[in-house]
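We modelled the chain as a single entity of 334 amino acids. Its sequence is:
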Amino acid sequence: MSNAAQRRAIAEKIAAKVERLRQEIDDRRKHLAQARARGNASTIAKAEGAIAKTEEVLHAELKRLGPAIDRAEHAEAQERKKAAERAAIRARNIGLMRRLDALREAAPSIRAQWEAERKDEEKRLKKLKKKLEQRTHKDQFTGPKRRGRYWEKPIPLPPPIEQPDLSDTVDAAPPREGLIPGTYKVVDPDRLCLNLLDDEPLPASWTPRHVGKRFIEAHDVLRRLPMNVRPQGYSALWPEYTFEPGELAIQAGAETLAIGRNVVFRTASASEVARMSQALEWIVRYLTRCNAWSLVYLNQWASSRDATPDDKDAPVDLLEFIAAALNEAKEPVK
């Protein structure tokens, strides 16, 4: 039995008791009138005392009746409000499930598009590999065939870079190593993913695969953030010092390099933290009406260390939903 039904039952019980007390008072007053007509003093006194006690009980029950009715009406109003909210949530869930069903029906076409993109990427890599082989192993075939093979003209190597002779100079600094022309290029910082160059070109619009890649990157950055908070403990008063290159070489030879203070901890840069915040904000912005288990599965999949956008266990429906929302909002792909 619900709370509203219990409160309504209490109010009806009090109302029935009030009616019974009023009927009892009317009956006792009739008996009192008959006793007065007979002139029986003891009966009159008993009847008056009983009527007074019954009126006191009736007065107390009337005080209880009003608040009981108010509480019952309030509980019924709250129950109606909750029922309306549940109906609205059920309607929204039905609409979301219909949309997810529509996305699930469109999933084969999207997977086919992924397969086509993957095949195009393999073709592009083969062409690049072929061009690289032609640049590094260029053969020129001239003349007749000799001993089962053509004559191969060797490729002339560039002359070595001449370094200045500083043997006679006492205070001259050693030569600095520079970059060979053609071995470097300017890269957009946003294309640096997990400290490795992302050679895969950005899609023209948001795709589920790219959205999944952004979630995996966000969870990797989240793991590398400094979250451990603890007391400093014992430490020296002198500031930390830096070893010279010779000292580092000696420590490396003695296998004591990790014992010193030259230990590098990999953290996250400001651009990586900004990309992580943008990706995690999509869950709050676009998936607030999804079931809790769907969000938990999405985070568990993205936080696993061996997760890739092409996994068969990837939540394709949620990634497609977010990609469609980003394309509708005209968010730039990055």
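As a brief sanity check on the tokenised model: Confidence is low (pLDDT under 50) at residues 138-150, 178-186, 193-198. Residues 41-136 form the longest helix (96 residues).
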